Please model this.
Amino acid sequence: MHILNKSPTLAVKNITSEEAWSGLKPVVDHFRIFGCVAYMHVLDTKRRKLDPKGGKCIFLGVNEESKAYRLYNPTNKKTHISRDVVFDENNSWN
Model:
């Protein structure tokens, strides 16, 4: 419903539902592009001294249980949940 309220509908012409209700344009800066490249921070407890501190992943969406992002790492074929993520929305995974 959060995304639907910030999307245009046929019920109100040329504005969103939230804009019709509150009179303010909705803020959508926090939305991310599905499938973009994301770099996840690997915790100190899950890596050794010479292991990389970050991992390249694919953005899948937002986690339903917490305020975190769901990421897929194709090198080890695992799904990760992390809040420490940097997005590269200009690139997609090949």
